[in-house]
Amino acid sequence: MDKKIFYSALFAVILCSFFPMFIVACYFTYLPWNMNRLNIDESDVSLFLILFGVFFILSNQISSRILVPKFGTKIIMCIAIIIIAISNLLLMISPSYFYLLVFAIPTGIGWGSSAPIAGIHANLIEKHSKKIVVPYYAMGFNLGMFIGGICAGIFINFQFSPKYVFSILIVISFFISLIIYKYALPENLDFKGKGDKLKVPEKNILLFGVLLFMIFGSNGIMIDWSTLWLTKDLNSPLYLGGLGLMFFSFGGMLANLFSSQLINYFSEKIVGCIFVLIGSFLLLLSIIIFNLYLILICLFFYGFLTANFVPLVIRQAVRQSTENLSTTVGNLITMGLCSMFIAPAIIGFIAETYSLTHNMYGLCVLIFFTGIVFLKMFKPIKN
Questions:
Q1: What distance in Å separates the CA atoms of residue 366 and residue 352, rounded to the nearest whole number?
Q2: DSSP codes joined into one string, 102-134
Q3: How many folded domains does the chain comprise?
């Protein structure tokens, strides 16, 4: 693959994972404000997330099995980004909880056709270039969360109206889509092939999918509940509450940016498995001590040490799968990303009885055991 095509396509993939997460970071930083405006609680948000997740899964399966084989990846990514921007504005201006649930549908459709399809595009670049690409796709998510969290904190501190903030994001989304369409892989290198029929994934793909379900669920909980957790349980001001998400995503962004160096220096096994064990233990320790600033520092290390778990699991699965790339990556990311909405929903219901802090204890233990399972499943990959 030509260097110019490689770096252009890599830029497009990072942008496609960055901008939706930027919007999401803004939305969930504003979540306490939106909850107060609509007079809803954690269980109401959980129902919203479940509805969102259902349409996310449906959209992803239709996109990866039918639309991608027919139209390729980049046109779908471009349309999906615009849908995400418009639907998030609708969430912020919804006149009632009923309409919030209604607008969860296009939000789920947009997300289901954006992030997973960008993952397919990243794997295509990796396939054609023979270079490590998927961690940079993951970096886009963390970069979006990091910058989105900073910007949302600034918007809130200066009392910018969410209506105007998300209206501007819609305008930006059109320009982002044009850029992605221009710089993504040309049609002759985009996905080509027949779509697979809907069926249960291979056993090993299911196992890898469960691992992704766990780690993506952890990320979803951080995105959706970290601001409320820090403001409610640790009495942090709202503009400081967004720092938890910012520290977590900044750590992940750095780890993805230097993924090749980390893997070459430590090995895939250490970066993919041992780092996860250390990260979850550090976060658990900080929660036990229960100091805001220590928790923020450990959220950074947790983000850094768990960030390359996802791309390394995907790399293992793609090489072991006998199904086509679109179906394999679509299934993996569906199982992973759907937990970003299911896990926070479950936490919301549990938080009605037990505090978010108690839920964070359980999260750390669960991720620790996820690292142990991947350690058992890990097989060295020959480049």
A1: 20
A2: HHHHHHHHHHHTTHHHHHHHHHHHHHHH-S--H
A3: 1
Q: Provide the domain limits for residue 108.
A: 3-377
Amino acid letter, residue 29? T
Give the CA count within 13 Å in the CB-facing half-sphere of 164.
6
**pLDDT score recorded for residue 192:** 66
Calculate the CA 305 to chain-centre distance: 16
Tracing tokens 């930006």 back to the chain, one arrives at 172
pLDDT tens, position by position, 152-184: 888 888 888 889 999 999 999 999 999 999 999
Q: 382 lies in a domain?
A: no
Q: Classify residue 257: in a domain, yes or no.
A: yes
Which CATH number fits the domain that encloses residue 64?
1.20.1250.20
State how far the Cα of 8 lies from the Cα of 6, in Å rounded to an integer. Answer: 6
At residue 80, the pLDDT reads 94
Task: Locate 173 and state its tokens.
Answer: 């989304």
Average pLDDT in the chain = 86
- According to DSSP, residue 95 is labeled S
Is 168 a member of any domain? Answer: yes
**At a CB cut-off of 8 Å and minimum separation 6, what does 65 contact?**
195, 196, 197, 198, 326, 327, 330
Helix, strand or coil, per DSSP, at residue 77: helix
Determine, yes or no, domain membership for 91: yes
pLDDT-based confidence at residue 198 (cuts at 50, 70, 90): low
Are the C-beta atoms of residues 124 and 73 closer than 8 Å to each other? yes
Question: 360 near 299, Cβ under 8 Å?
Answer: no
Residue 66: which H helix or E strand, with range? Answer: none
Note whether 19 and 176 are within 8 A (CB).
Answer: yes
What is the identity of the amino acid at 272?
A: G
pLDDT at residue 195, as a whole number: 57
